[in-house]
Design a protein that fits this description.
4-stranded antiparallel beta sheet; globular; 7-stranded mixed beta sheet; mainly beta; single chain; 119 residues
Length: 119
């Protein structure tokens, strides 16, 4: 069982930037595919970006392409989400997600970090 803890959320104005971090426990982080998801009020949780264990970015939701960048530092057991040109519609709770078996199934979630973008 791997545990993850997100940080870096906050409140910004439209056009601003934030960097989210997700620190994972354990010594096999480098073997995991990792992802960021988000859930806006009244909406279902949706995947935002995913990065494979080989650092190949495999997915971005269309609405964040060109604005968000997912990356990882295996030496620090950490995955990041750099968010630029933020929009009010990016307001959500952002969750770090672990796919430890690399089969496309999430088997661990963080507690979430709130991102609020004001117009």
């Amino acid at each position: 069982q791997v545990d993850v803890v997100e940080s870096g959320g906050g409140s910004v104005q439209a056009g601003g930037s934030l960097r989210l971090s997700c620190a994972a426990s354990g010594d096999t982080f480098s073997n995991y595919n990792m992802a960021w998801w988000r859930q806006a009020p009244g909406k279902e949780r949706e995947p935002v970006a995913r990065i494979t264990w080989t650092r190949t970015t495999s997915y971005y939701i269309d609405s964040v392409k060109g604005r968000f960048t997912i990356s990882r530092d295996n030496a620090k057991n950490t995955v990041y989400l750099q968010m630029n040109s933020l929009k009010p519609e990016d307001t959500a709770v952002y969750y770090c997600a672990v796919d430890s078996t690399r089969r496309g199934r999430i088997d661990a979630w963080g507690q979430g970090t709130q991102v609020t973008v004001s117009a």
